[in-house]
Amino acid sequence: MKIIDTHTHLNAEQLYNDRQEVIERAKQNGVVKVINNGDTFDSFQVIGKLAEEYPSFCYSAIGLFPGMGTSEVNQDISRVKNIIQNTKNVVAIGEIGLDYYWEKDAQKREEQRVLFKKQIALASELHLPIIVHSRDADADTLNILLNSDFDENIILHCYSGSFQMANRYLNHNKKVYFGIGGVLTFKNARRLVEVVQRVDSKHFVLETDAPFLSPVPYRGTRNEPAYIVKTLEKLAELLNRNKDDLADEIYERSLRIYNIHE
């Protein structure tokens, strides 16, 4: 069994400080690669170091989280592009998108949309997938993506939308995949369970978002890539699939989505 944790943050201080032990536990649980997702310029430096230190295990996604840019958005995009070109194992631009949960100001939300659109354009230019964060912004996220001419893979990180919205993405001929993480194991995950049971599983990838969103029975503690097996087990249960077969299928899909060569 091989697993790629397609969305994690080993660059976060609480994981980075004992990264060797975290990586060993991940490997013991079948995780053979992780994709560390950026959010700020500072995070990009640590992600680059991880890829240099663990070149066959750590891959990089470089992108500015909503609200993490400056007032000079074009300069930010130029800087992101330069960092991508000088960072090892870059396989995506992420995590980018919209977050209205933390931002209520209308002007600041518009700035998020501008930054999101410009990073989508950069990903198109560089022929890279995008990893999309969307919180309390489902309609705007959907409209921006569907109205773009972006033709690369789109991964909706920690998908929390409805089945109906998932269907809207899939009906518009975009290359859309849904990141399935620890939330699937929560008792109140009814919407995500419906998505998992009604959307074709060929659109799923596995993720942890570590150190956040630990699956049951680790909920409330620091998450790490090793715990991804709990999400895999729940997904296999809901799909009535053999766990190892499902893992292998998702592993091969993840390699293709991110153009990772073993």
Describe the structure.
The chain is α/β, with parallel strands linked by helices and 262 residues long. The chain has a single domain (3-257), classed as TIM Barrel, CATH 3.20.20. The chain has ten helices and eight strands. It has an eight-stranded parallel beta sheet with strand order 1-2-3-4-5-6-7-8, sandwiched between helices. α8 links the parallel β7 and β8 (204-206). α4 (73-85) runs parallel beside α5. The protein is globular, with a radius of gyration of 17 Å.
Taken together, the total number of domains comes to 1
CATH class: Alpha Beta
Please trace the helix and strand order, writing H or E for each element.
Answer: EHHEHEHEHEHEHEHEHH
Helix content: 40-55%
Beginning-to-end CA distance, first to last residue: 15 Å
Beta content comes to: 15-25%
Give me the CATH superfamily: Metal-dependent hydrolases
What is the topology, as strand order, of the major beta sheet?
Answer: 1-2-3-4-5-6-7-8
| Coarse shape | globular
Largest sheet geometry: 8 strands, parallel
Give the mean pLDDT: 97
